[in-house]
Design a protein that fits this description.
11 helices, binds adenosine monophosphate, UDP-N-acetylmuramoyl-L-alanine:D-glutamate ligase, alpha/beta, single chain
């Protein structure tokens, strides 16, 4: 079943211990829709400026990502983010974020062909934008959102309103604590379940991820990647693959949720092996399936 993703399409300037990339392709929506395209029909809603590189449109299209919902505002600039990773690549600092065309009040234009989307993923972006999108979607089967510190700190009231309208929330352990004031990730997940979502997925970087609902917890370690080159987009591609896999399964069951967690973990492991989308671009579904099989053999 098709998956509709909304999120940023951005230029990222990246600095890691392994190198530097200036204005490479990035953005939460780009990583997530690309990752989802391994599993299902993937559609992206977002906005870029007149400085958008058409080669990036081609790159995403060649992967089968439907870009009818990517608006180009010729008199504005594309979202820009730059970040620097420390030697311990679990830590990074944002050097600059310019929302530009995708400001906090950006209202998406939703093509008619997207309005019956059964699966909806709200990638990192403003909760105001996300709610405007949900207003245009007829009757989605599953709506899942991602969020980050930028929106937890800056748009908390709107984020809490959004939480009442979604089925699942994906976030990392630090963000879960920021959002709830809880002492640990499990405690935070329980508090988030009281805020609206029926399930929470907590990403724990190199320690893996947990899927938590009121009666189930599923856990996975991270895939043991030997060479992390650039962690940017790991979380977004994790979420895109998770949603793509759930959309491919067509229903949310314990089996489909566990399978989606494994695929999410493995796709994220490909993302971090190169800058931007460089490694993910060369991966095939067969490579992903082979790595999932290898990962399963390693699990006790
Ligand atoms: P991740 O490494 O998974 O946290 O995602 C990093 C990606 O998110 C980069 O490609 C950025 O362009 C994008 N990004 C960073 N800050 C924001 C923001 N405030 N809103 C939307 N996207 C962002």
């Amino acid at each position: 079943m098709p998956l509709l993703t909304i999120g940023s399409a951005a230029y990222d300037t990246l600095e890691t211990p392994f190198g530097f990339r200036d204005r490479s392709l990035g953005g939460s929506g780009v990583y997530a829709s690309f990752a989802a395209s391994f599993f299902t029909e993937s559609r992206l809603i977002g906005v870029v400026g007149g400085d958008w590189n058409p080669a990036y449109t081609e790159l995403l299209r060649s992967r089968g990502v439907d870009l009818e919902g990517l608006e180009i505002r010729s008199n504005e600039k594309t979202t820009y983010w730059s970040g620097r990773y420390f030697v311990d690549m679990n830590r990074r600092e944002t050097l600059c974020f310019e929302g530009n065309a995708m400001s906090g009040t950006y209202i998406p234009i939703v093509p008619d062909s997207y309005k019956n989307a059964p699966y909806v993923f709200l990638g990192n972006g403003s909760p105001v934008t996300d709610m405007a999108l949900l207003d245009s979607i007829a009757k989605p089967k599953l709506v899942v959102a991602d969020t980050m510190d930028f929106y937890i700190n800056g748009m908390k009231k709107e984020l809490l309103e959004l939480l009442r309208r979604i089925d699942g929330l994906i976030l990392n352990d630090e963000e879960s604590i920021q959002l709830t004031g809880a002492r640990g990730a499990l405690d935070a997940a329980e508090k988030i379940l009281e805020m609206g979502p029926k399930f929470v997925v907590i990403k724990r970087g190199e320690y893996g991820a947990m899927f938590i609902s009121s009666d189930e917890i599923y856990l996975t370690p991270a895939y043991p990647t030997r060479r992390v080159v650039d962690p940017t987009g790991a979380g977004d591609s994790f979420a895109g693959a998770l949603m793509g896999s759930l959309a491919e399964s067509g229903e949310l069951t314990p089996e489909s949720a566990k399978k989606a967690l494994l695929y999410a973990t493995v796709v994220a492991s490909f993302t971090v092996e190169g800058f931007s989308l460089e490694r993910l671009q060369t991966a095939t579904r067969a490579d992903i399936d082979a790595r999932v099989a290898e990962f399963k053999r390693a699990l006790v």
